[in-house]
Specification:
about 290 residues; single chain; alpha+beta; four-stranded antiparallel sheet; about 35% strand; 21 strands; 2 domains; Jelly Rolls; five-stranded antiparallel sheet
């Protein structure tokens, strides 16, 4: 008798559960497909690395991207960079998702706003290849400054010339020697520009006298139109009259016009042209 009661009780419990599964099974396929799309949508967005120097080239689509697929189903997407609000620190874009490849690119099924930001930008000067330093920090390669309706990137405004040295550099980890062993130089003065939000920044400029004979490479450092060095700057003199020694000059600056201008000018008493090996720009405070 007790066994029969237990079995009857179990039957009462199992039946509603079976009915629930049966009712849910009609939705499971559609839910799974939608979940899969959302997963791929989010995955595609996550792969948009805002620290990449080639962000625009890598993630700005002019046509629908049909490379994403799951179980034979194409998941068309299109990423559009918002150049109005994109700068050296911030990458703003919209990732559009379409029902199928025949949809008009102007009529996406849904979209996801993308906002990628970083607090520091590092650029080596004189060499276009990127670098990971001894602290595993990314340095962008040297590049020309661009600001157009279709692209923008920080970099040099005056081309000048580039050169390098294989000599080891003191006062820095060996893994960071390549930062100082390459440089950009100009007879007319160096000019680097970074599009940034209005706010306060710390600018670090990387130098080393790598010529082995220049003692009068006198430079004046101008940030946002104001000279920030007191007395002429010389990497040779700043390191105790030494060659092949790393030296970093650090200054705080306020940017109000959306462009950080870094100029390194040749002093009138200089016997050698200005040159620079690296630039680091860090956010201190962004104005609302």
């Amino acid at each position: 008798m007790e066994v029969l009661l237990v079995m009857a009780f179990l039957s009462v419990m199992i039946l509603p559960f079976t009915l629930l599964l049966s009712q849910s099974s009609g939705l499971s396929k559609g839910t799974y497909i939608q979940s899969t799309k959302n997963t791929f949508f989010s995955s595609a967005a996550d792969q948009m690395d805002g620290t990449r120097q080639d962000y625009v080239a890598a993630f700005h689509d002019t046509t629908m991207d049909t490379s994403l697929a799951e179980s034979g189903q194409t998941l068309p997407v299109m990423n559009i960079v918002d150049f109005t609000n994109t700068d050296a620190f911030t990458k703003v874009s919209a990732l559009y998702y379409y029902t199928n490849t025949t949809d008009s690119t102007n009529s996406p099924k849904s979209s996801m706003a993308e906002y990628k930001t970083t607090d520091v930008v590092r650029m080596r000067c004189g060499l276009s290849t990127a670098l990971l330093d001894s602290a595993n920090q990314l340095w962008w390669g040297d590049q020309a400054y661009v600001k157009t309706a279709a692209n923008e990137q920080p970099g040099y405004f005056v081309t000048g010339t580039t050169s390098s040295s294989a000599t080891n550099v003191a006062n820095t980890p060996a893994a960071d020697d390549p930062i100082f062993q390459n440089w950009r130089e100009s007879t007319t003065g160096l000019d680097y520009r970074f599009d940034v939000p209005a706010g306060d920044y710390n600018v670090q400029l990387y130098f080393a006298e790598m010529s082995g004979s220049a003692t009068t490479r006198y430079m004046n450092i101008v940030l946002e139109g104001t000279q920030v060095n007191t007395g002429v700057y010389s990497p040779y003199a700043a390191t105790g009259n030494n060659y092949y020694v790393a030296n970093i000059q650090s200054y705080d600056v306020t940017v109000s016009d959306g462009v950080l201008n870094i100029n390194i000018n040749k002093d009138g008493t200089a016997g050698s042209n200005p040159r620079i090996s690296g630039i680091v720009v860090k956010k201190l405070q962004i104005q609302p």
